[in-house]
Amino acid sequence: MLQAFGDQALIELNREKSCTEKCRVYRGSETLRCEVFKNADPPTIYLDDALSEIIKKHCGGEGYEALFFLSEPLYQLAGCDYTVSHWIAWAMVENEYDTDPYYEAFELYKMKAEAGWSDEEQFVYINSSVLSEDDPVMAKSISP
Question: Considering the entire predicted model, what is its pTM?
Answer without folding.
Answer: 0.73
